[in-house]
UniProtKB/TrEMBL annotation:
ANK repeats: 19-43, 53-77
SUPFAM superfamilies: Ankyrin repeat (SSF48403)
Protein name listed in UniProt: Ankyrin
PROSITE patterns reported in the protein's UniProt record: ANK_REP_REGION (PS50297), ANK_REPEAT (PS50088)
Annotated source species: Choiromyces venosus 120613-1
Keyword Repeat found: yes
Pfam families hit by this protein: Ank_2
Keywords: ANK repeat, Repeat
SMART domains (alphabetical): ANK
């Protein structure tokens, strides 16, 4: 379904919702590695996009311990693992708070 939607000219894969979260942020948050990979391969989305709270896809994936997604985002070379949200929190701080040791090691 995602592949079909991404083929349509009238679909913007980087369009944020009312909270500023993009499809990549949602996919990262829920650990949808395949969707994250598809979106990153397009090359026309911003993997460093931030929502109204200043949180990035990496921040959401780190908080939930989504190691595969964190790896994909870091390997893209287009994300800053040291970014901070509006509350002064980094992806590392979220991973550490929730005891996500695998993600902490990646970051």
């Amino acid at each position: 379904l995602v592949k079909l939607l991404l083929q349509r000219q009238d679909v913007n894969p980087d369009f944020p919702d009312n909270r500023g979260k993009t499809p990549l942020s949602h996919a990262a948050h829920w650990g949808a590695e395949g969707v994250v990979r598809l979106l990153l391969e397009r090359g026309d989305i911003n993997p460093e996009s931030s929502d109204k709270n200043g949180r990035t896809p990496l921040s959401y994936a780190a908080e939930r311990g989504e190691e595969g997604v964190v790896k994909l985002l870091l390997e893209s070379g287009n994300v800053n693992p040291d970014s901070y949200d509006n509350n002064g929190r980094s992806p590392l701080s979220y991973a550490d708070e929730w005891g996500e040791e695998g993600v902490v090691k990646l970051l």
